[in-house]
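Homework-ish question, so no full write-ups if that breaks the rules, but can someone show me the predicted structure for this set?
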Amino acid sequence: MQMMLSGLEEFENQESQVRSYVRRFPAVFSKAQGSELWDTHAKRYIDFFCGAGTLNYGHNNPHAKAALLEYIYRDGIQHSLDTATEAKAEFLAALNDLILAPRGLEYRVQFPGPTGTNAVEAACKLARKKTQRSHIVAFTRAYHGHSLGALALTANSYYHDEHYGSHNNVSHLPFDGYMDGLDSGDLLRRMLSDPSSGIPKPAAVILETVQGEGGIRVASKQWLRAVADVCKQQGVLLIVDDIQVGNGRTGPFFSFEESGIEPDIVCLSKSLGGGLPLAIVLVRPDVDVWKPGQHTGTFRGNNLAFVAATALLEYWRDDSLQKRTLKLHEVIVRRLKRLAASFPDVHAEVRGRGLIIGLDLRSGELANRVIESCFAQGLLLEASGAEDEVLKIMPALTISPELLVEGLRILESAVTHVLGNLLDSKRLASGAQEQDQVFVRESRAADCQVAKNVSPILSGADFSDNHIWASMASPFQSPFQN
Ligand SMILES: Cc1ncc(COP(=O)(O)O)c(C=O)c1O
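A: Not a homework solution, just the prediction itself:
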């Protein structure tokens, strides 16, 4: 039966009220490549949303796609529970060789269910089992997922209902910068060392180094070190939830690298599988106290996602992606700060690290109108924060300079349009144009150099008798195509 996907009626009639992003982006999407998507009316969108941090390497990344096509074509194993497969072996080897060993990190890898919340559940259960304590400390504005254990850690009251009984065994303490003048690292130290603080000695402290859903709140290196110190002193495990801001989103592969801390447990998911569901929990070997099968499930190890992840980890063979991310960060922040300065009454603030950058408009209503205007002009972006007041600028790490500039111009025009500041819109556009051209030219040249390093990844693959492959244009000219 041919489905007529002309509008959103099918979704409105059949899908649960719980649907959300479809309300934000009311289109039926049919195709995506790199940082662009198209809907069923052939309208094209630039993606600054990136599946909430799942598409760091862009949609249908050519390296992952080539590896997947080859794997499916040769009937590679798809489902395997946690039996040993070639795809899993290759993923584990790549994770160790390209990520863990070069950083001097020694972790066991646990495969929970394939979503972020599954990783958080597994991490918390393991911390409780290892320490034989049940309490966990999380932070204000934290977001760790929606299954009941993870939901208990998620702070925003919108997601809670007293009947879920979901705040058991969790206390929330202030995140870095939560209150002016408060040293929340010191407060944590006091609360955990004082037997009369009212907080039972916890099994673990869990944190995001940048709170993505919480409104792009960045923890300082000092604060992260202070928290890690307290945990060590108190014999409490430190869990870093790197689900949204790991996989290079802040620049380095892990978001905590620059702080020098070494968490006991790390949760990773989202971009790891390049858009295919995959989550892992990295566990310090002495913390890995599971007995065989004590935390199990059917989809623990998605072989297609292993294949994609193995191909994508090749980006980490050198530091070019990291350097590029940091460079693009500067370009975006410079422009957003100029934009924010052009409407001082709003007191907008620019925050972020790498390619997770927030423009805090202090008003959910304003942010919502900007997002609607961006959507109408063909740019996808989301908001976060308690009132959805922070615009979340999150392009793929592989976005081309041309699309980045095009997306930023749409954003600038939407913001100035919504704030009724059309005069500044013209001034911003004319001032930016020349800089844009220089940026695009320089970035293109740098990307060509990187392409030379990344392109040979799959040079060993033989697609000669693969008719699917033969019909496709070579995608390997540049890892940062669009
Ligand atoms: C930091 C963090 N932890 C956990 C999750 C939950 O991941 P999932 O939606 O895949 O369950 C998210 C999702 O946005 C997240 O940002």
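Now go work out the reasoning yourself. Hint: Residues 9-64+319-363+383-456 form a domain with the Aspartate Aminotransferase, domain 1 fold (CATH 3.90.1150.10).
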